[in-house]
Amino acid sequence: MLTMDKYDYRNKRVLLRVDLNVPVSDGKILDDTRINKVLPTINYLLDKQAQIIIITHFGRPKSGYEDKYSVKFLTEELSKKLGIEVSFNQPMEKITLLENIRFNPGETKNDLEFAQNLAKLADYYVNDAFSCCHRAHASITKITEFLPSAAGLLLQEEISNLNNYLNPIKSPAMAIIGGSKVSTKLSLLQNLVKKVDYLVIGGAMANTFLAAQNYDVGNSLVEVELIDTAREILGSKNCQIILPQDVVIAKEIKENAEHHVVDISNILKGYMILDIGGKSIAKISELLKKCQTVIMNGPLGVFEYFPFSLGTTSVAKTIAELTQKGSLTSIAGGGDIVAALSQADLFDQFTYISTAGGAFLEWLEGKSLPGIKVLES
Ligand code: ADP
Ligand code: MG
Question: Which helix (H) or strand (E) holds 342?
Fold first, then answer.
């Protein structure tokens, strides 16, 4: 991989692509992890006396400028954290942040001319946005055709952690995959059954698998068109697939909704499966004790509402304990699981948590990431 130390940045301009797509509500930044994570690269470049032009995207603007997607609010936050004034859209200054790169339709189209114009702003290009590397966008891939390029410190850290811990995966290994839909994680499941000894399927995804085993899952979310595919995955050799034995069911999805814990053969009419039950949690915990590695992606229940968060947090607590004891290497990634782990205050107790959602998944699926490929030396 092309690293930053290849070049001399003294009095040169560097286009630095980062991911500052932070969660915001009512104009407030809810979580500043993404900002904190790119500070080392910015400081490295400042130290080398580079002039820095920061690029990020924010949200998914449809076409052109939209007030609510402007990134101007980030300049103040960056200035505060760096202790140096960050200007906005002034590429001639020491350090500046450019407006949301996705306001230009050339970005997502990986447009050649757009990348070429962007390249004219600088002498070098640094990519520190691992979470965007699964996208062939102009400021991630095309730009590297016009500027000498390198990987930033965060991007390098993400890749080397994933490689260190998961390539190859030390067995016995378990993958715990939850979340809302089988369709979004189908190729992940198909790849994982070849790589891990135990595959735990939870969340709404499990419903489709239970339906494939002819259980009546009541009003639960099921992807009927994937039942056959689920049967194929269940037939995988060399990988034990673990589905919930008992589940928490309720009629509505809300905080403290009236609920029951039942075996999967006793799901009541009109109810939905919203979490895994105690027997399932105990079974997963037992198996985890035998494992050297665990990968967790996707919550095991509707973790946004208590008590349906308990399946996810109980399993995560066991993982945290075994990790702290030194018997387990634990890796987690994906938007919602990261939120669930922060909510349960377990963020620091896993071996490694990737901040990338889609890129983490595609890496796990064994796909080559376009943004990484162009940085290979
Ligand atoms: P991640 O972002 O971690 O990859 P997903 O986006 O695939 O996860 O899925 C997260 C969503 O899945 C959460 O909003 C959660 O409420 C939902 N979910 C989990 N279990 C269930 C369930 N049994 N029924 C309905 N939704 C569920
Ligand atoms: Mg998600």
Answer: helix 335-343
Bigger pLDDT: 358 or 56?
A: 56
Q: What is the 297 CA–ligand 2 centroid distance (Å)?
A: 9
Q: For residues 121 and 15, is the Cβ–Cβ distance under 8 A? A: yes
Three-state DSSP class for residue 87: strand
Give the distance from CA 244 to its chain's centroid.
24
Ligand 1 atom index nearest CA of 297: 3
This prediction's pTM: 0.89
Q: Residue 198 Cα, ligand 2 centroid: separation in angstroms?
A: 23
Say if residues 281 and 312 touch (Cβ distance below 8 Å): no
pLDDT at 356 over 90: no
- Sequence-distant (6+) residues with CB within 8 A of 18 are 34, 38, 41, 54, 55, 56, 128, 129, 152
Kindly report, residue by residue over 106-145, the tens digit of the pLDDT.
999 999 999 999 999 999 999 999 999 999 999 999 999 9
Residue 228: is its pLDDT beyond 90?
A: yes
pLDDT value, residue 42: 98
Residues in Cβ contact with 283 at an 8 Å cutoff, skipping those fewer than 6 apart = 242, 245
Atom of ligand 1 nearest to the CA of 303: 16
**pLDDT above 90 for 220:** yes
| Choice from 274, 313, 336 to test ligand 1 binding pocket (greatest atom count within 8 A of CB) | 336
Nearest ligand to the C-alpha atom of residue 299: 1
Count Cβ atoms within 10 A of the Cβ of residue 131 and give its class: 0-12 exposed, 13-18 middle, 19 or more buried: buried
- Ligand 1 pocket residue status of 202, Cβ below 6 Å: no
- With a CB cutoff of 8 Å and minimum separation 6, the contacts of 214 are none
DSSP assignments along 166-185, one per residue:
HTTBPSSEEEEE-SS-STTT
336 Cβ inside 6 Å of ligand 1: yes
